Amino acid sequence: MNDTYIPLGKYKEKSWYLVDAQGQTLGRLSTQIANLIQGKTQVSYTPGSDSKVYVVVVNADKIKVTGNKLKQKFYYTHTGKPGELKTRSLAELLSRFPYRVIELAVKRMLPNGFEKSDLAKRLRVYAGNEHPHKAQKPKEITFGK
């Protein structure tokens, strides 16, 4: 008989990664971060198990997008009241909240289900070069530019 190996979460250690977003394309970077958070880059990847991977992204304000997305891509928020739909362009969101663009892109690439909110909380995005997670000693990881 074949037995499936499922690693238990209590034996795994938390691993922290540091990603520099300077000069990276938004969509390509977001897919790689989503795969990293899910644990798909680990040898012991199992879809239902906890990967315990945390990702810190710095320089979120220096990300680039292709085409006319700065003017044509919109983000919508709604309070629930009639007539309360708010629309913001990507350029406006990048100028006011540069970290939120990467957070939303990665969160929307995660699989649906009860784990989606837990996995999204493991992403820490900062607009500048500084971050408060130096005590975790994150490993720097670079994706192809």
From TrEMBL:
<dbReference type="InterPro" id="IPR036899">
    <property type="entry name" value="Ribosomal_uL13_sf"/>
</dbReference>
<keyword id="KW-0687">Ribonucleoprotein</keyword>
<comment type="subunit">
    <text>Part of the 50S ribosomal subunit.</text>
</comment>
<keyword id="KW-0689">Ribosomal protein</keyword>
<dbReference type="InterPro" id="IPR005823">
    <property type="entry name" value="Ribosomal_uL13_bac-type"/>
</dbReference>
<protein>
    <recommendedName>
        <fullName>Large ribosomal subunit protein uL13c</fullName>
    </recommendedName>
</protein>
<dbReference type="InterPro" id="IPR005822">
    <property type="entry name" value="Ribosomal_uL13"/>
</dbReference>
<dbReference type="GO" id="GO:0006412">
    <property type="term" value="P:translation"/>
</dbReference>
<dbReference type="Pfam" id="PF00572">
    <property type="entry name" value="Ribosomal_L13"/>
</dbReference>
<dbReference type="GO" id="GO:1990904">
    <property type="term" value="C:ribonucleoprotein complex"/>
</dbReference>
<dbReference type="GO" id="GO:0003735">
    <property type="term" value="F:structural constituent of ribosome"/>
</dbReference>
<comment type="similarity">
    <text>Belongs to the universal ribosomal protein uL13 family.</text>
</comment>
<keyword id="KW-0934">Plastid</keyword>
<dbReference type="GO" id="GO:0017148">
    <property type="term" value="P:negative regulation of translation"/>
</dbReference>
<dbReference type="GO" id="GO:0009507">
    <property type="term" value="C:chloroplast"/>
</dbReference>
<dbReference type="GO" id="GO:0003729">
    <property type="term" value="F:mRNA binding"/>
</dbReference>
<dbReference type="GO" id="GO:0005840">
    <property type="term" value="C:ribosome"/>
</dbReference>
<keyword id="KW-0150">Chloroplast</keyword>
